[in-house]
Amino acid sequence: MPRGDKSSYTDTQKRKAGHIEESEKDQGRSGAAAERIAWATVNKQDGGGRKGGSAKKTATRTTKASATKKAAVKKTAAQKAATKAVPKKATSKTVKKVAKKATKKAAKKATPTPAVKKTVKKAAKKTAAKQAPRKAASKTAAGTSAK
User: Fold this and answer.
1) Do 5 and 47 contact (CB within 8 A), yes or no?
2) For residues 80 and 64, what is the distance between their CA atoms, to the nearest angstrom?
3) Is 2 among the domain residues?
4) Do 138 and 100 reside in the same domain of the chain?
5) CA distance 15 to 39
């Protein structure tokens, strides 16, 4: 089989490549570039020119698995809790509301302990004490230059 031969591709794959090629041409790419991109996309999605059977299923499964992994990583814990709590016929607005509530609950649980609050107060006092002389000095300097 010579290089670039498309006989091993299914009709569906050829049709898909044709649609991709048309869309690439509509975006202003040359015919050769559009064809190259189209077949590269088909190869990536279907794992090359395969005729069905178990080989095609494996390629599709792999693509779906990687997409699922990426989507799972992007979900936050609050969103996961929200999707579990919302009934199946819920709209995206209700899902967002439930996610917000779950996030607020998690934030309330993560409030700082008294020891942490003390440390934060001490740090705030120190910075305020350091800045007070600077402010006073800048005011006096501004007052003398204005006279």
Assistant:
1) no
2) 20
3) no
4) no
5) 11
> What pLDDT, on a 0 to 100 scale, did the predictor assign at position 29?
94
- CB count in 10 Å sphere of residue 129: 9
Domain that holds residue 136: 114-147
Q: Note the pLDDT of residue 33.
A: 95
Domain edge (last residue) among 26, 46, 74: 74
Any domain includes 53: yes
* Domains contained in the chain, number: 3
- Same domain as 86, residue 56: no
Q: Record the tokens describing residue 25, joined without a space.
A: 């041409």
Q: How many CA atoms does the CB half-sphere of 140 hold within 13 Å?
A: 5
Q: What is the pTM of this model?
A: 0.36
pLDDT along the chain (147 residues), means of 10: 82 93 95 94 84 59 62 63 61 77 72 76 80 69 63
Backbone torsion region of residue 117, taken as left when φ is above 0, otherwise alpha when ψ lies between -120 and 50, otherwise beta: alpha
Tell me the two tokens of residue 89. 């016929």
Token pair, residue 55, equals 């080989």
pLDDT at 16: 94
